[in-house]
Amino acid sequence: MTACITTLGLRLSCQPKGKLRPEHIEKAFVQLPARAQLLLKPRYISVDPYMRTRMQPEGYDYIERWNAGSPLSGWTLAEVIASNIPAFKPGDLVVGHLPMQEIIASDGKGLAVIPAGSDPTAFLHPLGMTGFTAWVGMQLIGQPTEQDTVLVSAAAGAVGSIAAQLAKRLGAKVIVTAGRADKRDWLRHKGFQTVLDHRHADYAEQLHNAAPSGITLNFENVGGRAFTAAIEAMKANGRIVLCGLVSQYQSEQPRQSPHNFAQLGQKRVSVHPFVVPHYLDYWDDFQKFMAPLVARGDINWRLDTISGGLDSIGLALIGLLRGDNLGKRVVEIP
User: Fold this and answer.
1) Relative to the CA of 91, which of 205, 252, 259, 296 has its CA 20 to 30 Å away?
2) Angle, to 10 degrees, between the axis of helix 224-233 and the axis of helix 203-210?
3) What is the distance between the alpha carbons of residues 144 and 137, in angstroms, rounded to a whole number?
4) Is residue 316 predicted with pLDDT exceeding 90?
5) Are residue 98 and residue 201 in the same domain, yes or no?
């Protein structure tokens, strides 16, 4: 493959201050390398809350910051359209972290071929990076038992929905939250009995009534007022697995701490923040654990699919940060 190819991709036009808006993401021409080993056509691109954190000027040490002009990337299900690498054949479906482009050049590193007979879209959710995030946070770090009362916020989202099911499978009492009525209905339909609205004015009281003896393990996804209420409800010597703070990512102060943070010390609550790039050595263990559950239908999952190709990425991400999704939000690329 030596011909020069120009394609379209997405980049950050400028770093947002406060809320992300559609004009912060723009299309631009991308020149592909003349001797690309692989050419890929994306089929689905995952849209995830961490993308907004990559746009924050202070950045994070575990992942490259997106500055003005930076190309955007994400977890992608793609089809091989040309290959000089024997392990990849035209027509193969692969997943990996890839640039958001109409055509993608790759050297094959970090890509996994979808096994024959598998549902490819499962590798966008329970068998993909969001499923891995849930497994690391709940199974490796949280390690709930039958003695635990577990709180999972945003439990109708991509990570929360898997994390809550893992806690339930381990025998814990599981309290789940969601900010919309249809999400709470979906959670009840999937077998969760204690379903709360973390946006409700009386959420702290609802949480106390649901767990009068206190929460022993909190899998935190939301932040803000919901996290404040969770801290109030924590039992002494409890654990918090800090996965995300999605309600704060569109704020001008996205790293603001809860006003009652001191209670964590008073209650001797341990806090375990984590980021999945530090756990990639466990990827094969995760696949061995999760793949049989998915194959048997023992894990419920749902794609929230947005059509419209690359032009829809910005609005899809904005909607996700607003809580519009039910399940794992992805954008389909025609």
Assistant:
1) 296
2) 30
3) 11
4) yes
5) no
CB-based burial label for 109 (10 Å; 0-12, 13-18, 19+): exposed
The greatest distance separating any two alpha carbons of the chain, rounded to the nearest whole angstrom, comes to 67
Least confident of 31-35, 95-99, 195-199: 31-35
Write down the mean pLDDT value for the chain.
96
Rounded CA gap, 115 and 117, in Å?
Answer: 6
Q: Is residue 289 part of a domain?
A: no
Residue-range definition of the domain harbouring residue 235 = 129-277
* Pair (204, 97) in one structural domain: no
User: For the residues of 242-277, what is the DSSP string, one character each?
Assistant: E---GGGTTSSSTTPPPTTTHHHHHTT-EEEE--GG
Task: Specify the DSSP class assigned to residue 327.
Answer: B
CA of 296: how far to CAs of 161, 269, 290, in Å? 17, 37, 10
Q: What is the pLDDT of residues 109-153, one digit of tens each?
A: 999 999 988 999 999 999 999 999 999 999 999 999 999 999 999
- Sign (positive or negative) of CA dihedral 246, 249, 255, 261: negative
C-beta separation of 68 from 15 below 8 A: yes
Closest CA to 169 of 197, 196, 190, 198: 190
The rounded distance, in Å, linking the Cα atoms of 29 and 59 is 26
Q: What is the pLDDT of residues 249-301, one digit of tens each?
A: 998 777 788 999 999 999 999 999 999 999 999 999 999 999 999 999 999 99
Q: Are strands 234-242 and 270-273 parallel, antiparallel or unpaired?
A: parallel
Kindly state the average pLDDT of the residues 232-249. 97
Interatomic CA distance for residues 334 and 325, integer angstroms:
21
Asked if the structure places residue 287 within a domain, the reply is: no
What residues contact residue 246 under an 8 Å CB cut-off, 6+ apart?
49, 154, 157, 221, 222, 223, 321, 323
Check pLDDT > 60 for residue 2: no
Residue 3 — very low, low, confident or very high, per pLDDT cuts 50/70/90? Answer: low
Can you tell me whether residue 29 is helix, strand or coil?
A: strand
- Rounded-to-integer distance, Cα 322 and Cα 318, Å: 6
